[in-house]
Amino acid sequence: MLKKLLKGLFSSSAPTAEKQDVKPEVHNGFQIFVEPRQNGSQWQIAGRIEKAFDDETRSHAFLRADTMGSRDEAAEHTLRKAKLLIDQQGDAIFN
């Protein structure tokens, strides 16, 4: 019982990202990496938006509280949210 308690105290309960090679989708010059995170039996909307500038590539990671029942559904919503962020904020997303 003590071992179980200690394990609970020192282990992370943070959502985990689905690790796989993610091919980005390009939208208005930005690359969108769809990276939903599993949180228990649900999936959270999560991803990364990148854009190459003259001297560097800038990145903006995002995680939403929204949860979905499947990875595919979360991936679809992640892509939609990323495109909306790009359309609304443009380059200001990196500030």
From TrEMBL:
UniProt name for this protein: Transcriptional regulator
Source domain of life: Bacteria
Taxonomic classification: Bacteria, Pseudomonadati, Pseudomonadota, Alphaproteobacteria, Hyphomicrobiales
The species this protein was found in: Roseibium limicola
Pfam families with a match to the protein in the record: HlyU
InterPro entries, alphabetized: Transcription_activator_HlyU
